Amino acid sequence: MGAATARVLAGRGFRVVVNHRASGQQAEEVVAGITAAGGEAVAVRADVTVPGDVSAMADEIAQRWGGVDVLVHNALIPFAVTSFADLTWEQLGGKLEAELHAAYLLTKAVAPDMVSRGYGRLIYLSTGLSRRPRDGMIALGTAKAALDQFVRYVALELAPHGITANLVAPATVSGTAVTGQLTPDRVRELGEAAPMGRLVTPDEIAHTIAFLASEESGFTTGHYLPINGGLAMD
């Protein structure tokens, strides 16, 4: 999803920072593809749960390009797939702490400059599991539900400054680390459950993010945008 988003945003004229924690080769491949297509991109290593890494990344971006207009928080923070009966507090509390800590650190790193300039787009990846439970996904769904509400409060506070904050909530996405934890039969079942009969693609998520990153989305804030092929209709 991150690679698809980077390519789509670069294709729309954004200068893109591809953040990674331990996938430097893949990040550089994304950057090389964007550059070859005439775009501007750079890869920066930072663990978004580590304050020093986040501040160093923000400083590097500020020095290179003067600041951040759009933040897309798409980091996959590991979680246990387990029932409540087998769930430990370390698994649940650890996921909650890491999920919110990353969102907090990244938002704190970019929001003050956005406020000073009177413009910004904050976009966070959530999941349909934050509203509709599925067996084994209690840690992920609970942590993302907390993220959903965090983003609404950020949106409320920053709206007067011309800054939007929104959530993109895909159903199960094809070709990701999460689907890699599932059996092929389970992946097929999840795709068939949607009225459109398939899983969401990374490019479909990227195009939704691109709208929220654009100037045209300036009156859209505090929203949770599902991308699920009709699986849940709110």
Break the fold down into its secondary structure elements and pairings.
Elements: H1 2-11, E1 16-20, H2 24-36, E2 41-45, H3 51-65, E3 70-73, H4 89-117, E4 120-125, H5 138-158, E5 163-170, H6 184-193, H7 202-213, E6 224-227
Parallel strand pairs: 1-2, 3-4, 4-5, 5-6
Helix pairs in contact: 1-2, 1-7, 3-4, 4-5
Can you offer a commentary on this structure?
This protein has 234 residues and is of the alpha/beta class. It has seven helices and six strands; from the N terminus they run αβαβαβαβαβααβ. It has helices at 2-11, 24-36, 51-65, 89-117, 138-158, 184-193, 202-213, and strands at 16-20, 41-45, 70-73, 120-125, 163-170, 224-227. The strands form two sheets. It has a four-stranded parallel sheet with strand order 3-4-5-6, with helices on both faces. Strands 1-2 form a two-stranded parallel sheet. Helix 3 (51-65) runs parallel beside helix 4 (89-117). The two termini are 24 Å apart. The mean pLDDT is 94. Its main location: secreted. This is 3-oxoacyl-[acyl-carrier-protein] reductase MabA. It holds the Pfam family adh_short_C2. It is found in: Secreted, Cell wall.
Provide a quick synopsis of the model:
It comes from Mycobacterium paraense. This protein has helices at 2-11, 24-36, 51-65, 89-117, 138-158, 184-193, 202-213; strands at 16-20, 41-45, 70-73, 120-125, 163-170, 224-227.
